[in-house]
Amino acid sequence: MPLNEIQRRGTKTRLTEGTTRYARIVGRNIALRRAHKGLTQEGLAAAMTAADLPITANVIGFIEAGRVGRRSENQFRNVSVDQLMAFAAFFGCDAMALLTPACEVCEGCPPAGFTCNACGAGETVGA
After folding, report:
1. What is the rounded CA–CA span in Å between residue 110 and residue 120?
2. Distance from C-alpha of 16 to C-alpha of 11, rounded to nearest angstrom
3. How large is the average pLDDT for residues 16-37?
4. Range name among 9-13, 15-19, 72-76 with the lowest pLDDT average
5. Does residue 74 register a pLDDT over 70?
6. What angle, 0 to 180 degrees and rounded to 10, lies between the N-to-C axes of helices 81-91 and 41-50?
7. φ, ψ dihedrals at 76, nearest 5°
8. pTM of the model
C-alpha cells in the first residue's frame, strides 16, 4: 500500500482496512481453529491461560472481530507478535499457518485422519 494511502494521526499510523489485512486473516483463522476444537472464546482464554499463555476472552473477541469495542467503525485491532506466537503454540502450528488465508473447502481444519484435496492440509496416511 503506498504511503500516501495510509492515514496518519500525529506520528502514529492509524489502522485501516488496508493496514490490518493480516490481522483480519489471523482473527478468522483463530476463530476457525477455536470452533474446530469446540471452544468458546472464554474456553480458549481459560485453556491458553492454563497453558501459561495468558489472554482474556475479550481480547480474543477483539482479535477475531478485527475491531476494538462495539461502536468502533474506525477502530481496527491489530495482533501483537507475542499474541500470534501464543496462538500458534496453543494450536500446535507455526505462525505462517495463522497468517495464511484458510482454505475455502476445509477452512484449514479437515476432519481428523483426512487430508484436504484442495489445500493438502491434514494428516498423511502411512508413508
Report:
1. 9
2. 15
3. 84
4. 9-13
5. no
6. 90
7. -90, 155
8. 0.71
